Amino acid sequence: MSTQSEAVLEEQLIKQLVENGYESIVINDEKDLNANFKRQLEKLNKILLTDDEFTRIYNHLDGGSKFDKAKKLRDRYALEREDGTVYIKFLNQKDWCKNLFQVSNQITIQGKYENRYDVTLLINGLPLVQIELKRRGNNLKEAFNQIGRYMRHSYKGLFNYIQIFVISNGINTKYFANVNSPSELNFEFTFFWKDENNNNIKLLDEFTDTFLEKCNLAKMISKYMVLNESSKNLMVLRAYQKYAVEAVLNQALEVKQNGYIWHTTGSGKTLTSFKVSQLLAEESSIYKVIFVVDRNDLDIQTNKEFNNFCPGCVDGTEHTGALVKNLLSEKNKLVTTTIQKLSRAVKHKRSQSRLSKIKDKNIIFIFDECHRSQFGEMHQAITSFFENSLCYGFTGTPIFKENAAGGKTTKSIFGKRLHTYAIKDAIADHNVLGFSVDYFGGAKIKEGVEGEVSSINTQEVFEDENRMNQIVDHIIESYDKKTRNREFNAIFAVPPKGFIHKYYDLFKKKEHDLKIAAIFTFKANEDLDEKEEHSRDLFEGYIKDYNKMFKTNFSTDTFQEYYADVSKRMKNRDIDLLLVINMFLTGFDSKILNTLYVDKNLEYHTLLQAFSRTNRIYNPRKSQGNIVCFRYIKDETDEAIKLFSNEDAIEDVLMAPYEYYVQQFNEAVDELHKVVITIEDALKLESEKEKERFVVNFRELSRIKNKLDIFTEFTFDDLNMDEQEFNDFKSQYLDLYEVINIGKKQGKVSILNDIDFELELLRNDKINVDYILNLLKDLDVSSSSFEHDKERILNLIGETEHLRNKKTLIEKFINEKLGNIDEKTTVEEEFDNFMRSERRDAICNIVEDENLKEDVARKIFDKYEFSGKLENDLIKDSFKDKLKFKERNSKVQAVKDKIKEIFNIFDY
Q1: Coil, helix or strand for 61?
Q2: According to CATH, what is the number of the domain 6-236?
Q3: Which of 159, 331, 470, 668 is the most exposed place for a label (fewest CB within 10 A)?
Q4: What pTM does this model have?
């Protein structure tokens, strides 16, 4: 059977949409689009518009960023007429089924280049959903990349109102929210639609009947998108988030009973709980919605995140008095607080008396991570005081009978489970990562004795200095490999009772350049012998080291400020390794944390919560969370995965062993060799189809190599390709990428245009400019091996993706400067002077070639260097000659591209 073409796929999709109630309409170009919008706007608002009135409305809609446009879509326009003001709506958000739905295809828009879009869904005449199709068998990512190309080249006017993109090859279909710029597009944030049991709806025809069903689509845009004020971007809920929100709304407004949501850690519970809280707060029958966390730092974090989603819609509570004031106020209906403050408010006589006037009000409590602190008397005191309240819990790790310490379970506290999205589901959707778990079993327990971790069971053995020494050595030795040359960072979890002090001292004594910090809570009255120092005194010393390292001024008296700073520096990757006992093992989210070293006993929810600090999605190089265990907790790990997913989930949650990926790599080598056997074959590839096959096969090889890199035992000796051969193919792969990019800039059409080369997989931060300069120090221009050594260095630069654009410059430096450096000047100093001079010349060339005003051009360069922003108006003002209207955009873009290229080349 022949492969279904894009045209047939498109035809069938439109037919299905029409059967489902969409009006099919022919729109050829932007003129037709605008005319249709006017007609639909008149129908929606039951009004006739003059040309002048429509022009005013269009001009209102045309201004601002995509984010501003998303706000305008959901707002009304005050149209002034002779007979008064008429408020024009663009989207019916309350009765979403009553919007006007149309479908069109092959709309042609002339931007930088002319592009025709596959299928466009219009709601009230506005193109709010764009669908890009690829024929069956094609990689879905090609459709995704095509959208990025359209963003760069042609989306304009009403097409900047797109809210949701859909990509499909018929077999697989995904959706995602629009973004400000193509640079912010990330394939990791494309989603499958699902049914309520978390089964993916991949086929285009099933997706069309469910997600693209008129009422569902309009409801998703009206109710289940969030305008994030922090990032100025749109967010669209995933299917499981939408089902959870609707389940809570139904339970609160119709059933009027408690319940809880089980969504695995890292799957976006904050966004889900915010949307629940926001929609409940909009209900006139509800007095207040109170979002409750169990730690002060989480209160601050939640308040910040909620206000990012909806500025000013949340009242935070700095102290109990502020909480009482907020609860009594008629202003904001959504309040965030800690369970401790809320408990004090209902117990204290004075505040209890003040709150008595609202104790019978209809109040909704949303409890975050409801497994942690809602099992004691605080929760009971709160729910008993507010007599007409309902409680809903969100947790990634519920308490079941198997892991219930005091007999109480999440169900016994909150009642019915309303929706489930387990870790197996999240990993399958690539919403979180799986785990690679190593058990370090070769530590010397006592002098001359080797012991396996599985046999270690006594406190004396755990505290053995030899063992702890080897653990510290292993962390130092493995750190760069596990964190991919420090692109990511790590946490080291240790037990209480002195371990953190011993480990901190050992790290201080060792030779390494890791930036290490520690954080823990201490008891005021510790049981100590005469020789022991109090934990607080020791902690003061650790904070002094921290202050010296980061030029701060914290102490144990300012613990909360220290905590906040540690959190910020972990997320910014200023800290390499953080030593903890319990803190930061729950509630701490950082995408650049990828490794957890563990020397403590963990089980059930505490184990999965700790492991899950490492599994947030970031980029293709972060392919899993790394767990290195110095205690044998394999049985506990397996039990936790079974409990919080199912019996068959272990293989899905845990990465396969090293040998599995070796086999995968060698099988991928066989596939590559079906296209090319040697690098000479790769260099001779001529047809686009052959090049495409090479790119796809080598990319798969790189993906597997990316996973192999994190194993400490990895060696090329186990592979059917040596390191030099891999690097040779990598160079050709990168050469093809450069050729394609040049072609794109020239508007050349190629089947490789939309292929994702996934260059991040090839990144090697260890090989940087400093690394190359160290090699140049040993390069002797008078040596007979000079040319050979120079060629080796230039080849290494060519194999390193982020250095390739500097290859010509470094070669020029070697040829012109290296042999003339005197003893008073270092290679680094001479290279800095050389790069400054070359950069200055490159900037002068832009000014001369583009005929720019030098003073204005200088402002542009300085501003870009400081903020990373290039302003179109400033660039337009920099041209000496007045630009013609038709050439303005292309000339401005050319200057932008040249400036970015210069800063990219000379930034090191």
Answers
A1: helix
A2: 3.90.1570.50
A3: 331
A4: 0.83
